[in-house]
Design brief:
The chain is an alpha/beta fold. The protein contains eleven helices and eight strands. Bound molecules: the ligand CNCC(=O)c1nnc(C(C)(C)C)o1.
Length: 319
């Protein structure tokens, strides 16, 4: 596709480290790009999805000091897959602790999927710390959003991929699949946890792209990854992210961030975080730039989505 911007080349961090954020959790972080640059923080998805090299490539490394960190319990943060003190508001506090640790007054915030939910939660709690918001595949953990992907919605579009996830649960528990998976993901039986984690994770990895991508789907076969991803996601969902339903979309909360330069990017065929949430956010927040990419699904790597993400972070170099 001609004329589309692509991510910046892969780079390595100039510094990495860990930050003890409470008496249990230690967060892994890394800094890359320009140490003297304008700071930007990347908030990964899932929750429990952890960061990877491609997450550094959304930012011009000459301009930005690019900060990535693995949220509580996932990636290189420890203890692995631990659900204790692991909530939206604990991570919002961690973002502030990291900002202070790095010595920055404010920073650009970038997040996709769960990362977009966390970006909104952080910005609404600390609007004076946010230079801009770049949001992709909008997710706000409403019950309707969870029902659509985990119970009955995306299953009509990816019926064959839904089957292994659905058939893993006995008939009498099929009416609430999130609760049924949570029971297995938090069971004392290690094998039961692992089997549930692999089925849960494969369902999501199989539906991220417009054209399914075996490389991405294989993540479901990496035990440690699948267990952290599934346990943490399911933990946040059964607790509705410790938010009221629709909290982040309420006028009084959007009012807190309405003035912040922001870009909303959404794939039309995103079945993981369907376009309705991006549209609801856009209607409440018309001041934010809004791009509905007509030929893309959920993943940031979809060509049209990648183009808008790079265009947005390049645009925010002027701040
Ligand atoms: C409901 N979870 C959507 C989400 O945050 C997400 N989707 N894919 C990811 C990874 C790219 C981290 C696998 O995260």
């Amino acid at each position: 596709k001609s004329g589309l911007r692509a991510p910046y080349p892969a780079i390595e961090p100039y510094k990495t480290g860990t930050l003890k954020v409470d008496d249990l959790h230690e967060i892994y972080w890394e800094a890359s790009g320009n140490p003297e640059g304008v700071p930007a923080v990347f908030l990964h998805g899932g929750p429990g999805g952890a960061t990877s090299v491609s997450d550094r490539q959304w930012f011009d490394p000459k301009h930005y000091a690019i900060y990535l960190f693995d949220q509580r319990g996932c990636g290189k943060s420890v203890p692995h897959a631990d659900l204790t003190n692991n909530t939206t508001w604990d991570i919002v506090k961690d973002i502030e602790k990291l900002r202070e640790h790095f010595g920055h007054e404010k920073w650009h915030v970038f997040g996709g999927s769960w990362g977009s939910c966390l970006s909104l939660a952080y910005a609404q709690a600390h609007p004076d710390r946010v230079l801009s918001l770049t949001l992709r595949g909008i997710f706000t953990l409403r019950r309707s959003e969870l029902e659509f992907f985990y119970q009955n919605g995306s299953s009509h579009i990816f019926p064959e991929q839904f089957e292994p996830y659905y058939e893993h649960i006995p008939e009498e528990e099929k009416s609430d699949l999130i609760a049924a998976y949570y029971k297995r993901l938090t069971s004392d039986d290690k094998e039961a946890r692992l089997q549930a984690a692999k089925r849960w994770t494969r369902w999501e990895m199989s539906t991220l792209r417009l054209y399914s991508n075996e490389e991405v789907i294989k993540r479901a076969d990496v035990d440690d990854y699948a267990v952290a991803f599934a346990r943490i996601e399911c933990h946040y969902f059964v607790n509705a992210g410790w938010m009221e339903d629709g909290q982040l979309l309420k006028k009084e909360n959007v009012d807190k961030i309405r003035h912040i330069p922001a870009t909303i990017i959404q794939g039309r065929y995103d079945v993981v975080c369907p376009a309705k949430t991006a549209y609801d956010l856009h209607k409440e927040w018309p001041q934010a730039d809004y791009y509905l990419v007509p030929d893309a699904a959920h993943a940031s790597g979809e060509l049209g989505i990648a183009h808008q993400l790079i265009t947005a972070t390049d645009k925010y170099r002027s701040i």
